[in-house]
Amino acid sequence: MLRKLLFQHQDKRQLVIAVIGAFLGMTFLITSIHYLIKVNDFGKGAEILGPNTIIVQKKVSSFSTLKMTKTDFSLNEIEQMKKEPFILDVKPVESNNFTVSIETNDPMVPRFRGNIFIQTVDPGFLDVKSDKWHWKEGDTLVPMIMPRDFLVMLNTYMSSAGIPQVSDELAMDIKFKFALMNDTMKEYVSCRIIGFTNEVPSVLVPQNFMNWANKRFAPDAEQKITQIMISGKENEFGLVEQMLKDRHLESKNAQVIVGRLKSMVGTLILVVLVISIIAVFLSGLVLIQYLQLLLSKNLYEVRTLMRLGHHPKTLVRTFLVYFSKVFGLIALLSLGTFIGFKILLDSVFESGGLYIDTHLSVLSILALILAYSLFALASYLSARKGIYEQNNG
C-alpha cells in the first residue's frame, strides 16, 4: 500500500535511462577489473622471473669483437638506469669466474656430463615457488634452477641411449653434482633441480653459493657484470623498450614481446576501467536525482502519511527497499552479462595464443558488491534527508 501510494507519480523514462547506464557501467567495470588482474598475472608461475622483469645485455658489434668497446656494465650505468621514473629496480647478474661442469650422480640414470656456466640474481627478481632456494656454507646440497633447454638436451641424450625420457617432476628427483675447479684444485658439490626457466640460458644458483665459490676458486678475479635484470613499472614497458634502444641494449625477444603485450593490453583495459567508473558514477547520480524527484512529487503524500502515524523510518525503508531491488536487478544482469563476455573473451584470447587464467577474479565480484553497497547507501541517505526534512517542517 505504501509503495503504491509513494510511487504513483513516477516517470519511468528517467529510471530506465539510469538503469541502462548503471547496467553498462557496472558490466564493463567488473569485466575490465577482471581482465586487468588476469593480464597482469599473465606469465606468473610459468616462469622463474618475476613480473615485468627482463634480462638485458649490451649489443655486440664489430667494435666489441675487436675490444674497442666494452660489453660489461659499470656500477654508474646501473645507478643511472635506476633513476628513470619508469624503472622499479636494476640489479646485476653475477657469473662464475672459475670452471664448472655438471654431471649426473644417480645410480638410476646413466652418466651425463657437460661444462656449464652458472649465474645468480637478486632473489627479489625471482618468482620461485619453493622454500629450498637458499644455501649456506656447510650445506651438502645446492638448489639450482635449470634452463629448460638443458632438459631437452638431457632427454635427447637419454633417447639416443635407449633410455626412457624424463618429465619435469622426474628431473627434479635426479641427483646431480657440480665439479668446481681452477688451475690448482677441484671440488665436487651435490646439487638438485628445483625449477626450470625458458628465460635464463644459464644455471641459476643462490647468491650465497656464488659468493662462496667465487671467493674460493677465483679469489683474485674481477667480477664483471655482462648482464643485468630490469624490473619496469606496470603499463610503462614502452618506455623501458625505448631506453634499451637508446642505450644500445638488448633482451630476449620473447621477454620483450610479453612485456609489450602486457603493457598494451593493460593500458587499454585501464582506459575501459576509468570510463566504466565514470559511467557508474554518472548513472548513480541520475538514480539519486530520480529518487529526489520522486520525493518532491510526493511531498503531500509523505506529510499525510507521517500525520497519520507512519514513522519516517518506515517511509525511508520503503524507498530503500525499492531502490535496493533496482540496484540488485542491475547487479545480477551485469554479473550475467560479464560471465557471457568472459566466456567469449577467454575463447578469443586462447585462439590468439594468450593463455590467461580463466578462474573468476574475486576482486571483480567485490567491486560489484561495493558498487551495489554505495548505490544503496546513497539512496538511503538521500531518502532519509528528504523525508526527515518534511518531518521537521
Plain-language structure description:
- There is one protein chain.
- The longest helix is centred in the last third of the chain and has 45 residues, at 253-297.
- Strand 3 and strand 4 form a beta hairpin.
- This protein has helices at residues 2-6, 12-40, 62-65, 75-82, 148-160, 168-171, 207-217, 237-246, 253-297, 299-307, 312-351, 362-392, and strands at 53-58, 87-95, 99-104, 113-116, 118-120, 141-147, 176-181, 186-197, 203-204, 227-232, 249-251.
- It has 393 residues and is of the alpha+beta class.
- The strands form 2 sheets. Strands 9-5-2-10-1-11 form a 6-stranded mixed beta sheet.
- The chain folds into 2 domains: 2-43 and 261-392, no CATH class; 57-232, no CATH class.
- It has 12 helices and 11 strands.
Largest sheet: 6 strands, mixed
* Quaternary structure: single chain
- The best one-word shape is elongated
Q: State the end-to-end distance.
A: 24 Å
- The structure class reads alpha+beta
The number of helical elements comes to 12
Q: Bin the helical content.
A: 40-55%
Give the neighbour order of strands across the main sheet.
Answer: 9-5-2-10-1-11
